[in-house]
Design goal:
single chain; alpha+beta; 8-stranded mixed beta sheet; two-stranded antiparallel ribbon; 10 strands; about 30% helix; globular
């Protein structure tokens, strides 16, 4: 009996997952800065194949760009919990490095995602997307999101999903420009016993892929 598509995709070893689901042509896994000759290579890794050096680079990007957002939220910032989440078995990473750098050079941006279920729907869930400061605003984030969405489409999931803090207005607008809208699964304001309305500090967005 064939496995459901989510389980079947997650059961694949990394080389088979890459050949079956990564977008083609190979130039999709490259990114060129318009105003400079600098180009970047994008590679796929899993939580189990991620080297300690790459793991640390990804964690440091999260801490640098988002630790304050976590700290100011109801979720809170816990380095230990974040490191544990980064090792979830089905999590995969799109890693970005300068094409001119040696393979051992650090990751300068990444997107992590998981093919999974959310509220009974088959989805590709964007866990993290973080870019070094010099790569922000150049179109790389949009390119990474498109790779993830195309991959999710090839798997056959219904939609792409993500969570974003509401105080990160720039990120909310970025996702909205890409076609993401508030998902039915997103938490709603709730009224406390004293009559105060408590609004959530994050929102869940989604985009239909098929």
């Amino acid at each position: 009996m064939a496995l459901p598509r989510v389980e079947a995709a997650n059961a694949l070893p990394l080389p088979a997952f890459s050949s079956q689901y990564l977008p083609q042509p190979p130039t999709t896994l490259q990114f060129h800065l318009l105003k400079t000759p600098t180009s970047y290579q994008i590679s796929l890794e899993s939580s189990s194949t991620l080297t300690m050096s790459d793991f640390s680079a990804c964690f440091n990007l999260i801490a640098t760009t988002s630790a304050s957002d976590y700290s100011g939220s109801s979720i809170g910032w816990s380095p230990a919990k974040k490191r544990k989440e980064m090792r979830l078995p089905d999590l995969r990473y799109l890693l970005v490095r300068s094409a001119a750098s040696a393979p051992a050079d650090k990751v300068e941006a990444f997107l992590s995602f998981m093919v999974t279920y959310e509220d009974g729907h088959e989805v590709v869930y964007c866990y993290e997307i973080h870019l070094s400061e010099h790569l922000q605003g150049c179109g790389l984030g949009k390119h990474l999101m498109r790779i993830m969405e195309e991959l999710g489409g090839k798997v056959g999931v219904e939609k792409a999903m993500l969570t974003v803090f509401l105080n990160n207005g720039g990120a909310v607008k970025f996702y909205e420009r890409l076609g993401y809208v508030e998902d039915d699964y997103s938490p709603r304001p709730r009224k406390l016993r004293n009559g105060v309305v408590k609004k959530p500090d994050y929102i869940i967005l989604s985009k239909v892929l098929k």
